[in-house]
Every structure is written in C-alpha cells, then in structure tokens.
Design goal:
- Helix content is 45%, strand content 9%.
- With 185 residues, it is mostly helical.
Length: 185
C-alpha cells in the first residue's frame, strides 16, 4: 500500500485518478470489514499493474463522501467543541510514516481550520471531559480505524465512574458493530 500511495498513477485508460480522493474513499472503506477487503484488493492490483480499482475509488468519491455525514452540522459541532487554533491539524493528520494518514479528518479539520468556517466556541467548561456517575456502556470494534477502541479506553473511560467497555473482536466501525453480531449488539 505504501508503494502504491507514494507512486500512484494519475490515470487509468481515460479515467483520472485523484490520489486525495482515493485516500479518502480508502479510509472510509477501511471502516468496515466487507469494504476494507476492496481497498486491499485495489492496492494489490495497482501494485501489480492494474490501477482500475483506484480509478473506481477516485470516481466513487463524488458519490460516497457527500453522504458520509451532514458535513455542515458535523463541522459546526466539532469546531464549537473541539477545535484548537494551536494545532496544525493538516500536518498532524498526515504523519510522515503513515500510508494514507487521516484523510477525512484532514479534509474536515485541515481545510476548515484556516478561517473558512465561522467558529463560536462553547464555553471552556463544556469543552473538557466531565466525570459522570451515569451507567454507560461503550461498544467498540477491535479493528475500528475511524474510532479506535483504545481512544475510548484511555481518553473517555476514566471519566465514566460507572462505565464499562466491550471491544468486539474483528469488528470495525458502526455498520460492523450493528450488523456482524446482531444478537450480541
């Protein structure tokens, strides 16, 4: 994957391949087991001389990304609660040794962080985690690349006095959690 990402072709037949769009779609597809395999197959095929899967991901961007979330609502909530002007999100979400970085985060945080989104942050007291005595169950997937289980374990669970976390084995993001073992969920 690293070799393909660093040396991505920009065309297959007469179809353009946009590396940024490929990264974003690949990252979104890595959320779930049934689509993650398509990413790996596409990168392996490209390494072997067939970039057609990358071209398809590049084209799919325009159909998949707009429907991933309600972008304005997400930006409004995230920025008002979590944005920190001292961070260089664009750089942080593309670390030097990463294969694709965090392209969806980079798209949202990196691009909107340059003053293009009107930000009115909520008061500081609400921007920090609060201890809670509410019984809370965190359900995480062991292979969730979007929201890794260890983030909840390390950053959130210590604040939940009556909190428990279940990490579902070989499970990705939301659709995997809901659909792979319906009875357990």
């Amino acid at each position: 994957m690293r070799n393909v990402a660093q040396n991505m072709l920009h065309k297959w037949l007469f179809y353009k391949i946009n590396p940024g769009k490929v990264e974003i779609v690949a990252f979104a597809f890595l959320y779930h087991r049934n689509t993650a395999v398509m990413v790996f197959d596409s990168y392996i095929a490209a390494e072997n001389g067939d970039p057609s899967g990358l071209a398809l991901m590049s084209m799919a961007y325009d159909f998949i990304v707009p429907s991933l979330m309600t972008w304005g609502e997400t930006a409004s909530k995230a920025f008002s609660a979590d944005f920190d002007y001292s961070h260089d999100y664009f750089t942080e979400m593309d670390p030097p040794n990463s294969i694709i970085g965090s392209p969806i985060g980079k798209l949202l945080w990196g691009s909107l962080g340059f003053g293009s989104w009107p930000i009115k942050q909520i008061p500081d007291e609400y921007r920090k985690l609060q201890h809670s005595n509410v019984e809370t169950l965190l359900i995480s997937g062991s292979i969730d690349f979007a929201t890794p289980a260890e983030f909840a374990t390390i950053e959130l669970l210590p604040y939940l006095n009556k909190g428990n976390q279940i990490i579902l084995s070989e499970t990705g993001h939301v659709a995997d959690v809901w659909n792979l073992n319906w009875e357990a969920t």
